[in-house]
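Sanity check

After download, print the first record. It should look like this:
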Amino acid sequence: MEDLVRGELKEASLSQLKEICERLRGEIFRTVSVRGGHLASNLGVVELTVALYRTFNFPTDKIVFDVGHQCYAHKLLSGRAQKFSTLRSRGGISGFPKRSESPFDCYETGHAGTAVSAALGIAKARDLQGESFDVIALVGDGSFNNGLIYEALNSLKILSTRVLIVLNDNGMSISPTVGGTHEVLSEIKGGRAPSEDIALFERYGLRYMGVYNGNDLEELLPALEEAKEALRAQSVLLHVTTRKGQGYAFCEREPERTHGFSPNGAGTEYSAALGEELTAMAGEDPRIVAVTAAMTDALGLRPFFQAFPERAFDVGICEEHACVLSAALAAGGMRPYYAIYSTFLQRAYDEIIHDICGQGLPVTLCIDRAGVTGADGETHQGVFDLSYLAPIPNLTIAVPKNIAEFRAMLRMSASYGKPLAIRYPREGKEGASNAIEIGKFEILHSSTSDIIVYAAGERCIALAKRILALAQKEGMDFTVVNARFVKPVDSQMILSRREKQVITLEDNVLTGGLGDAIARVLRGTEKNLRAFGYPDIFIPHGSAAELAEEFGLNSEEILRYIRECHARG
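Expected structure tokens:
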């Protein structure tokens, strides 16, 4: 496929272009079926990507993908077809744009709303250096809810540069697009929009062009040629519609379920437990509300939204707004639960500090996909949350050992009355839970040895137990503790224990995490501490298990250290 696409795309007939599209779509489906990845979003932009490659001259011209959920056809068209079968695997190509991977990837993305800002920056750098090429930002309608988009548009006239914004409108982010912006775009698509709606784009300095069928090359190719010509004079917004999951009936019917595809399926998920437990709690407590930023199903909240629509709020891809909304709901007497992936919570850091914790408001942050998430790579690894949350006053940070303890923490939070963060991975075991007291650890296995292991979260506790089994086969033993609160840590237990060899395990970067918290408690004592977690790097893509072994939670290295401790007596 690579030879055909690279050699003949510019000169191909319309029928040949359509054939290339089908071959691209088939390759995407086959690879994602094996490797996992973002399926429906990539299927929907095949024709649009081919048309862009036909019209523009990449990599001389530059394209910035907002988020990057739609970059697979781009990768196949840019010399990576032979490597595409390695998608998202360790040592293979990334599922997102990656500058080190190809000169066709001019800017790295992974979170929503950045593409217009990035395109403006690249275009302005072009102008300042006297260069001449086109810059395209490919942005989904879901990202158009994000405030960063409008910050960028606000500065377009100030920067006095020219970019092409291709608005890929499929009515979806991960979940269906919601809100006022969605309504405006829907009216424009339906021909019902008042002239002032389109005039708004013109006030930003854009020439609005649309709406065009982004899955129809016959309509799309001349539209792109016209946009390219118009770009000589000013910035352009080209509004196209696509169908998420295009070409595969199941993906078209279920675009939300097939947005992210895992070939092995998922085990028992914390997100499902969140939805079940919050729904049950809301039936008992009318103060409980749920907030999400465009991820209702991914976070397990569909049952809550169905049972209590008046208390369920999907604000679109607007993480900062969701945080402030949650704070204000709490200030108004409600008990908000803001569910969000760890990597996306980073975007609302200022609001966590000032709006939630600064006011001491009873908001519960349900932090899904915490720790290494695996194949999505650097932009999606949830390994920073313990570190960036720990310095914030008034905030308690809980890390459940299993799903049962997670449910118990949710129940506890309803009456806690203070800001609380509960962080958890995607999959886990139901297990059992004992009574929970804020800031208190739980001993899971007692030993008479001089070694104690504090493990935070289900993954690390499972690792500690696996290492314990191996150690016991060699005649060694150690105490295992469920460090279920990273803030506050259980200082009383830490200082009262007789063990001098202290080991911490955390699915987080080492800087500012559990190890650092316990080290502060042990300062001035004779105890030795060795912390295991992730180093000060961005963790690449690969499976969660192999990344843990390679970069931080290496079972053999931990076992070797325990052997050394035993040898020292």
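If your output differs, re-run the checksum step. Summary of this record's structure: The CA atoms of residues 15 and 217 lie 10 Å apart.
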